[in-house]
Write a structure and sequence with these properties.
By secondary structure, the chain is mainly beta. It is built from 3 helices and 21 strands. Helix 1 (5-14) runs antiparallel to helix 3 (300-312). The longest helix is centred in the last third of the chain and has 13 residues, at 300-312.
Length: 322
């Protein structure tokens, strides 16, 4: 995926400041232990295997998915996808009805060079072990022409697929057809603006809420059949290059992942979740004006450096002014 110089310069100053997670329960956060996972660009909580999280590398890795045990951070299975072409820029993963895994090969580092992108769909294996799994490949095009994207979500009840394109001044939620077809291309149409430079998104387990994350912020929405209503801002943790988010299987937590070997997966209370620490995590606190800070420990000097970086690199671009 594209790495703007200004973004990387700021991130390098703060990338090592995230406090490591230490919890026996994977829903409380964990560290990716597998040295093969160097560019984790998507995250999805398994419902078939409680405590397991699926992830994948960004590019130049091959047709692989990794099942990670959230209690240890260790990989318990690597899937090799067959029946598809060579992945180009895999950026997102989501699980739909019937424990079907959807993988979004939707990145475009050239900002709209590829005339089409791909989605891969495969059944989540009942047994977690290294294995080869046949996947179905779908061709995707966008109304209005090609674009870069890193966020793909599948509604947990309807199975409808949505993509959010990535643009510094904000993008759109694109809705796919009611059912994807292997015959010809599948046209995705814009249905709602998303005021964020989006790097990933996730549906709540009941499908009534949608969260979208960026590098330095996030937005929570109510979701109703393709219509979205903003309910607040997310306190996204400061990470090296944050590109993944998922709800925990019970919907009580949001977990945020980042690129980089040995990266941390950080957990926070989900908006409207039953756990309320009073620390201001999630959109509910933001909507009430509570704000709450990022869920990391920073020294005063680090905060000052971070503030200067955000000011210099135009944090106003992360959220499009309405």
């Amino acid at each position: 995926m594209r790495r703007p110089f200004a973004l990387l310069a700021g991130v390098l100053l703060v990338g090592a400041l995230a406090a490591p997670a230490s919890a026996a329960d994977g829903d409380q956060g964990f560290t990716l232990q597998d040295p093969r996972i160097k560019e984790s660009s998507g995250l999805a909580a398994s419902r078939l295997h409680p405590g397991i999280y699926w992830t994948h590398n960004d590019s130049d890795d091959g047709p692989y998915l990794y099942a990670v045990d959230g209690s240890t951070g260790r990989t318990v299975a690597r899937l090799t996808l067959k029946g598809i072409g060579s992945p180009r820029d895999v950026e997102a993963i989501s699980i739909g009805p019937g424990n079907e895994i959807y993988v979004g090969d939707i990145g475009d580092n050239f900002g709209g060079r590829w005339p089409y992108v791909w989605i891969y769909r495969l059944p989540e294996p009942k047994e977690l072990k290294d294995q080869t799994v046949k996947a179905t490949q779908y061709v995707v095009k966008y109304e209005g022409g090609p674009r870069d994207a890193e966020s793909l979500v599948v509604h947990p009840r309807t199975g409808r697929v949505y993509i959010i394109d990535k643009h510094e001044d904000g993008g759109h939620l694109f809705e796919g057809p009611a059912e994807l077809s292997t015959s010809g291309s599948n046209l995705f149409r814009p249905v709602a603006p998303v005021d964020l430079w989006a790097t990933d998104a996730a549906f709540s387990p009941d499908g009534e809420h949608l969260v979208v994350r960026g590098y330095f912020g996030g937005i929570a929405y109510d979701f109703d059949g393709g219509k979205i209503k903003k309910t607040g801002r997310l306190d996204v943790p400061l990470q090296r290059q944050g590109e993944g988010v998922t709800y925990s299987a019970d919907g009580k937590k949001l977990l945020f992942s980042s690129e980089g070997a040995g990266s941390e997966v950080v957990a926070q209370d989900a908006p409207g979740g039953s756990a309320d620490s009073g620390a201001g995590h999630g959109a509910s606190a933001a909507a009430k004006g509570g704000g709450g800070g990022p869920s990391i420990s920073l020294s005063t000097g680090a905060l000052a450096v971070g503030a200067v970086c955000l000011a210099l690199f135009g944090v106003r671009r992360l959220f499009r002014r309405g």
